[in-house]
Amino acid sequence: MVVLGGQKMRVSLETRIKGVVTGLAFCLTMVLIGMALSMDFRESLRLQYSLIQDLASRGPSMTSAQAVEIIEEQGGSWKVTSGEGEGIPLITSDGAVWSLEPDRQAILESVLHRRRHLLVAAMICLLISAEIAVFMAYWITRPLKRLVWGCARVAKGDLSDIPTEKAGSYELETLHEAFNEMVQGIKGRQEMERRVSRMERLAALGQVVAGVSHEIKNPLASMRIHLDLLGSSFNEEEQESLTVLSSELDRLNRVVTQLLSFARPAPPLPGPVDPEEVLDWCYRMVKVRLQKCGVGWHHHVEEGTVLWADRGQIQQLLLNLVLNALEAIDEGGEIRLSADRGSAGTVLSIEDNGRGIADDVKDRMFDPFVTSKSEGTGLGLSVVYRIMELHRGRIEYSSSQEGTVFTLWFPDEKGDQS
Amino acid sequence: MILSSTLLRLLAFGGYGLTLIILAGQAFRWKETRRSFYLGGRRISLWPSVGSFGATWMSAASLLGYTVLLHQEGYTAFTTSVNGWMLGLPMLPLAISRLRKSRALSLPQWLEDRYDDERLRSLSALGLLVVYTVYLVIQFRAFGAIVGTMLDVGDVMASLLVYLFVLYTTFGGLSSVVKSDGLNLIIIIAAVTVAACSVVSKTGFLPSIHDSLRAVDPQSLRAWPNSGTFGSFAMALGWGLGVAANPQYCIRLMSCKDRRTSAMTVAVSSLAISWIYLCLTVTGLGAKVLRPFVAGPTQEVVFSRLMESILPPLPLAFLMVGVLAAAVSTANSQLLLAASSFCYDLQGEGRIPSNDPMEEDDFLFRNRVAVATIATVALFLSHLPLPGILQLGRYSWSMVALCFLLPLYMPGVSGRKGLFGAMGSALITHNCLVWFAHMAPETAMLPSLVLEGVLWWFLGGKK
Question: How far is the alpha carbon of A131 from chain B, nearest alpha carbon, in Å?
């Protein structure tokens, strides 16, 4: 925490990393450069002293002209003063006296010039260190940032995973995995809560629907009998009205039957079912409509596949799904069905290339009375879902604008789900 | 203790490097978007904007090239180069309103939005990617030559330095670039002022310099060259139109916090730029008086030799650092634009901004990778035997003018249609004239520009 102008400012991890690494690099560079230059300088100074001392010791054996020649050879590295001074005295054979000492500034300049490559290299290293610090900070804080954004997303109700960093460290990868596991856990719990809530709602709804349907079904049966009895006593014109009345009664009866099968479904009587037979039956049921709509039909059954299910309920389930697919497909589309053996059961798949399921009903489409069709009852998929539940199976789907695929897993005879 | 020239230069260079690292130390924002990365969130206030505009304007090539040309040719250097550059400056305010109305984050995107043609965006972005990579090569070469001479180290080492400086200041996006640009403009102004003062102390101000030149080389006082007036005029016009259409300046106008700040940026920057040119003019002409003849294999070497011979060690070290600041400030802005053209305008998936910060973060990460890649390619190219600084600059400027000048300043020439065909034809024609007919880029630009206008008029259906 840094206090600036009475305000507390929190220093970010990124700034700390950059500051520490760059500072450390700077100090190390300075120390190394300082050591190198200082050693070089001392070495040069020592060399110059030894040269001066050597010259001074040889002074009495040389003339002043020879001494001047040697001094000039040394260039600007020496400070030469005539007469006695603070430096080392040089007395020649002809009596000339000089005071010699190394020129520290000239030596320093010469060292710096000699070592200029080292200085530039140090600058390059410092820059590289600063950039490494920046990247290190970025590399460490980026996954943390993503984690924070992921938390914010979860808080908003979006339970999607955070993509794991490919080049991330083990610790951050573990943190990401733990976060994703937590998200999956929340997702699972929400799904369970949704299921429980759905079951409760369906139970309450089922009771009401069963009661109401029962009360409607009896008068309906009575109306049907009386309508049949009245049929012969009307003239031809009135017969048309009777036909309409009859068909509407049938429709009402079908809805009530569906409601009852949804509310009080009969317990399944599972047995071995040949998927080929069921798919053929389904095809025969919709053949005319397929031709009318110009929709293609393809089905494939893996050899030796057997479905352990209630034949009647499976037929109803398939018919519901295929009719839904037909309504979603435009002319020229196709429906593909397949039955395959899973590791401990059978997998049925119904695929169409229709318009897909509307986004606004996707989340609730297995709930009763939820439909995107203007004339639908919204019971078809509820019934399908209920049948799968009764068979202890599982239903999944994926839908986009290119089509929809329903995948149904049926457990085998032992009741295990693949 | 009087420090030697080498030590002073080393100190100046080290000081510049450290100041840049400390003051322009970039930070990646906690929540970055492409808007903040490319345009600083369109919240840049006047002085930072002036700093960025001015520093981007003063490239190492112009600072160095203009001084050397002035020394060699006198005032004709002004009329053929600076005159042209300054010609484009008053045009920029005319584009402010158009640019700021749009919510585009790049000039190619502005073209697409304005003319409703996705191909225009791709074509101009491709052009910018090529042009700015070429221009980066110029900056690296100028910097390498100057640092090489200044510190007596090899060109490779010197280029590596500018590469690192530029990378360092570009990774943080426009905010980081603006921060370092402010520092760079201060350094440039201080450097040229110190250099000019040093020259004036020896030669006197412009009237005295003129008097001396009249005696030494009266030809250097004429405004236009005796031969090739059309070529010189075309060159000036080419530079001017290139400046007026240059996305580097347009982006700075788009990034200001409001329209008034954009207009003020142009106005205040023009004062700073004029001052810099005045100082360079004094330095260049004064150098001619003090040292009439200096030879060298390249402009960079001539510049170094000339300044070494006329300036005392301290102003010389200052001026060299000013050239480095000019190279860094122009290069980082060009690098950012090249990366934006590649990641934002040329790649389809990058064009749609996302509300998801993670997707934005991924996109910006790709931008940083692009910044590093483009800089590395430019560093590599800077060591190849390519044409000189001036040639590359002329080519780049004319390409930019062909892409943006007409759509930016004459949108009423024709309808929305037909611009892609016209621009494509103009670019092809220009390149044919330059590479096959060996015309000067700015001379080739004029017929290409006329062709573009005519074709657009015909194809656009506004007859």
Answer: 6
**pLDDT tier at B279 (50, 70, 90 boundaries)?**
very high
Query: Considering chain A, what percentage of its residues have pLDDT values greater than 90?
Result: 8
**Domains of chain B by start residue, with CATH:** 5-387 (1.20.1730.10), 410-463 (no CATH)
Distance, in Å, from the CA atom of B436 to the CA atom of B73, rounded to the nearest integer, reads: 29
Average pLDDT over residues A309-321: 88
Cα angle, residue A51 at apex, residues A78 and A39 outer, rounded to 5°: 80
Closest CA to B106 of B23, B167, B173, B201: B173
Contacts of B160 in chain A (CB under 8 A): 124
Shortest CB distance from A145 goes to which of B14, B161, B361? B361
Residue range of the domain that includes A196: 159-264
ipTM of the complex: 0.71
Phi, psi of A90 (to 5 degrees): -120, 115
* CATH number of the domain where residue A361 is located: 3.30.565.10
The 10s digit of each residue's pLDDT in B427-456 is 999 989 988 888 888 888 888 989 988 888
Mutation target vs B (from A22, A127, A176; most B CBs, 10 A cutoff) = A127
* C-alpha angle A75-A81-A86 in degrees, rounded to nearest 5: 115
**Same structural domain, A287 and A398:** yes
* Pair A254, A285 in one domain: no
Residues A379 and A273 in one domain: yes
Instruction: Give chain A's domain count.
Output: 3
CB contact under 8 A, B161 and A123: yes
**Phi-psi region at A346: left, alpha or beta (left = phi > 0; alpha = psi -120 to 50):** beta
Cβ <8 Å between B164 and A117: no
Burial of B175 (0-12, 13-18, 19+ CB in 10 A): buried
Give the best residue of B165, B358, B368 to mutate against chain A (max A CB count within 10 A): B358
Amino acid found at A222: S
CATH of the domain at A167: 1.10.287
> What tens digit of pLDDT does each residue of B92-130 get?
888 888 888 888 888 899 888 888 888 888 888 988 898
Contact A18 B25 (CB under 8 A): yes
